[in-house]
Amino acid sequence: MNPSLQVNTETASSAHTALDQYATHELVETFVSDQQYAAIAVMNASSAIAQAVDASAQRLARGGRLIYAGAGTSGRLGVLDAVELFPTFSWTRDRAPALLAGGSSAMFLAVEGAEDNREQAVVDLMALEPNETDVVFAIAASGYTPFAVAVIEAAKPLGCLTIGMANNPGSTLLQTAELSIVLDTGPEVISGSTRLKAGTAQKIALNSFSSAVMVKLHKVYGNLMVDLRATNAKLYRRALRLTMMA
Predict the structure, then answer these.
(1) Which is catalytic among the residues 10, 26, 112, 115?
(2) Is 84 in the active site?
(3) Is it the case that residue 201 has pLDDT exceeding 70?
(4) Is 115 a residue of the active site?
(5) What average pLDDT does this structure show over 89-97?
(6) pLDDT score of 3 more than 60
(7) pTM score, two decimals?
């Protein structure tokens, strides 16, 4: 990323320059209240999310896969969304792979430099042998993360539907992907800590995107989770209850 670029998510918030002097209740109230801007940002992006839902549902209905990609918090949120699709909608795990910079160990440990490894991003994507039925959805708060951008650049010539989601308008990821979702959350309470409202906005957007896609793919009857996979006692009871309600 060019250091001369103005990146909103890296800018220090002018509203909280004395954060380290706040009383405990002020700290908590500040962090909680700032989260409201995450929901607002996602609502402002609802049209773009809807466009991505319709385009993705068409590809996935042809047997394609939903492939998330990202680094750090953004990548972990992609993994989280992908993992939940199986128990919630019986969407098989092989149809929801997720590429995380640094590999699976990066879910639990920071892998230094992994987000800058463009070559590994391409290797990871190509190992999946993507094709024109697949949806490749890359996430990056800054919108400049080399790993995420490289995945999109590699996926486009293969005919995949490419979606980029970032928290900085006009960023490289958004300009590179076929479809873009801008979550303009602005500066964080702690400057640059995008695990805060930028991450919250990404989580809301991913929940909304994947849930809407699954509804379009007839994984829901009315508003009932009728295609869940009962993998534990709680889900077994839920399946029985939903069957009776349906």
Answers:
(1) 115
(2) yes
(3) yes
(4) yes
(5) 95
(6) no
(7) 0.91
